[in-house]
């Protein structure tokens, strides 16, 4: 065969996703089933529910991706599957299914680290050479790492508590933005970005966290509680407001929150760039910062990061939104990268066991 072909399978959280990708980065087939709607109703992911939904959908999603690719399963070079980190019950569904398939088709198996896959996605689109810096910001992730090779990461910073998307989702809930006529179909983060355009960020004074910390870690939970306290205070001020009604100051709060987390994320990233340059871990003149994850689609946060990259002679790259969020393509591509580098390709999966709780 001319090309390496990898089937990637992702079930670490609330998306059941699969894709077939070739060595040059062509996406031959993909399919995804999102559980977001179900989890929105419960106000968060209930792991056994997620597990059940993965079980109901995995066979169909993998089949859809493979048939769309027009590749016969026997032509696959390997099967790559997310094995960590994530919800144990969700991961188990993908892993069990993949091991069965690996056994049935007699193919090599490539276990994938979900964060490595997010970080390497950009190389499917751009010729980004190692090393580069990656910032992953989503509802479940928050980290800064230096990517030195396919499986060679230096973790520079992470959130000490929750991820920024998680915080935005909680604030949006407190603001009842789901009831806002313009925001009812948006994720919490997107609703805040939308509303912030109509607000004044200086109306509320919210300080960025960790201003004196001499590292590249993040924190969002103190900020979250501070903002929620402000919301409660505003609710008391705006007398007669009904439960679920939108505060008249909601846009100002959204603008202030967005501004504060943009500053926090930009400052921590600035520290990481300076750290890497001082230690000659990154090129002085053409370093690359890759930003990915659901929160990376926020244009205000991107602007803040652009200011940082412009000031430090770095190039800022973001994968398109559909590749920023969880998907099967990134897992398949990580499989291709590992095949090419010759790392972590298992020809015998006898020893791998997964016992769901
Ligand atoms: O990557 P993702 O789809 O899922 C994971 O969390 O893994 O990210 C979803 C998160 C949610 O918390 C959502 O509120 C946030 O990304 N998000 C945004 C925007 N769009 C989605 N946050 C800020 N601004 C946005 N435009
Ligand atoms: Zn993810």
TrEMBL record:
UniProt domain Gcp-like: residue ranges: 26-333
EC number: 2.3.1.234
Reactions it catalyzes: L-threonylcarbamoyladenylate + adenosine(37) in tRNA = N(6)-L-threonylcarbamoyladenosine(37) in tRNA + AMP + H(+)
Keywords assigned: Acyltransferase, Metal-binding, Mitochondrion, Transferase, Transit peptide, tRNA processing
Cofactor: a divalent metal cation
Enzyme class, broadest EC rank: transferase
UniProt GO BP: tRNA threonylcarbamoyladenosine modification
Family membership noted in the UniProt record: Belongs to the KAE1 / TsaD family.
UniProt xrefs under HAMAP family: TsaD
Biological role stated in the UniProt entry: Required for the formation of a threonylcarbamoyl group on adenosine at position 37 (t(6)A37) in mitochondrial tRNAs that read codons beginning with adenine. Probably involved in the transfer of the threonylcarbamoyl moiety of threonylcarbamoyl-AMP (TC-AMP) to the N6 group of A37. Involved in mitochondrial genome maintenance.
Name of the featured protein: N(6)-L-threonylcarbamoyladenine synthase
Organism (species): Odobenus rosmarus divergens
């Amino acid at each position: 065969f001319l090309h390496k072909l990898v089937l990637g399978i992702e079930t670490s959280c609330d998306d059941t996703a699969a894709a077939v990708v070739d060595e040059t980065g062509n996406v031959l087939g993909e399919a995804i089933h999102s559980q977001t709607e179900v989890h929105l109703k419960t106000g968060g992911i209930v792991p056994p529910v997620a597990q059940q939904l993965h079980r109901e959908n995995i066979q169909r999603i993998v089949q859809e991706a493979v048939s769309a690719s027009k590749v016969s399963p026997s032509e696959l070079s390997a099967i790559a599957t997310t094995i960590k980190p994530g919800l144990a019950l969700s991961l188990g569904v993908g892993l069990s299914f993949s091991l069965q398939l690996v056994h049935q088709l007699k193919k090599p198996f490539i276990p994938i680290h979900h964060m490595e896959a997010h970080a390497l996605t950009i190389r499917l689109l751009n010729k980004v050479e190692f090393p580069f810096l990656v910032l992953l910001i989503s509802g479940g992730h928050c980290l800064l790492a230096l990517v030195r090779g396919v499986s060679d990461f230096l973790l520079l910073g992470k959130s000490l508590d929750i991820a920024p998307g998680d915080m935005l989702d909680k604030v949006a809930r407190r603001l009842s933005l789901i009831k806002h006529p313009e925001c009812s179909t948006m994720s919490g983060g997107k609703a805040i970005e939308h509303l912030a355009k109509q607000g004044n960020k200086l109306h509320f004074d919210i300080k960025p966290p960790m201003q004196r910390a001499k590292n590249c870690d993040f924190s969002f939970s103190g900020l979250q509680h501070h903002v929620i306290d402000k919301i409660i205070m505003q609710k008391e001020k705006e007398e007669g407001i009904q439960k679920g009604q939108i505060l008249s100051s909601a846009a100002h709060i959204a603008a202030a929150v967005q501004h504060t987390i943009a500053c926090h994320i930009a400052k921590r990233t600035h520290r990481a760039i300076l750290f890497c340059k001082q230690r000659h871990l990154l090129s002085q003149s053409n370093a690359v910062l890759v930003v990915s994850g659901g929160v990376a689609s926020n244009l205000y946060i991107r602007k803040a990061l652009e200011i940082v990259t412009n000031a430090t002679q770095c190039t800022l790259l973001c994968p398109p939104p559909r590749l920023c969020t969880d998907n099967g393509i990134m897992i398949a591509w990580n499989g291709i990268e590992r095949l090419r580098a010759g790392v972590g390709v298992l020809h015998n999966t006898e020893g791998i066991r997964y016992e769901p709780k």
